[in-house]
Amino acid sequence: MSSNFHSEARLRVRYAETDQMGVVYHSNYLIWFEVGRVELMRAMGLQYKLLEQDHGCMIAVVAVEARYRASARYDDEIAVRTRIVTLRGSVMKIAYDVVRAEDDKLLCEGTTTHVVVNRQMEKTPLPEPYERAFRRLLEADKTQASADETQTIEEV
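Predicted structure:
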């Protein structure tokens, strides 16, 4: 898995996810993005289920971008690589790469933008344990980017 991603979820393409052309129907990638988000939180020791139950918060999708690069087919094993890109107050952006596990071929790349809301669908702050964990990932990325930049400069 690329060090740019915070988690990877693997799954196998089911026959029901393909269309008449024998390739994965485009909307399934959005479902796989959700799998990536939930597994990212699980990898961080957090549970989306508890965000809703204990804090009364939900992370609503307000925008989606997807670019399809190659086709996935029935029985392909795919990896959904997920990372947090930005976190500003109640708004977060998450990026995804969906790749074929066998050859690491990029199938789809995309982003989702989310707003944290309460049960009345009003914007609300991300609960502190979740915000702290997400910020830790973003800080680790900054530290890694700085180290990579220093190494690149030293190589020149």
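Summary: The first strand starts at residue 7 and ends at 12.
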